[in-house]
Amino acid sequence: MATEIERKFLVTNDSWKKEVTSTAEYTQGYLATERSCSIRIRVEQDRASLNIKSATLGISRNEYDYPIPLSEANEILQDLCIKPLLKKTRYHVPHGAHVWEIDVFDGDNKGLVVAEIELETQDELFSRPDWLGEEVSDDPRYYNVSLVDHPYNKWDK
Fold it and tell me: What is the model's pTM?
């Protein structure tokens, strides 16, 4: 079984931008957003994948990821996925022994910036950069699957 251990944080400033080593544009859509799991299609540049993730709260979830043909992914996004599709740019920022993934959302989620770190164990220590804000790992509003039905620009902030 594949397990993802990921923590999510808000970002407090733009100082991370000077440390970016790579970027990727993502478009993703969801085929199912059930109580037990989410099933999504993701296109990253010229690659595509089918991803199944358990719908449990917290930092540890079962996750399965499979490559699929790009042309089929684009058809599925267009014809089968729940709308609107989620669009974001992911920036990779090394800090300490880890590489942070900073997602800058677009469309209905414009203005939301979330930093994620993947860990080997739930209690793994990591260095916290100065741009790291409040942890939102346990807040389901920040899950990508939630941002489709409840986009950031509709939140009461």
Answer: 0.91
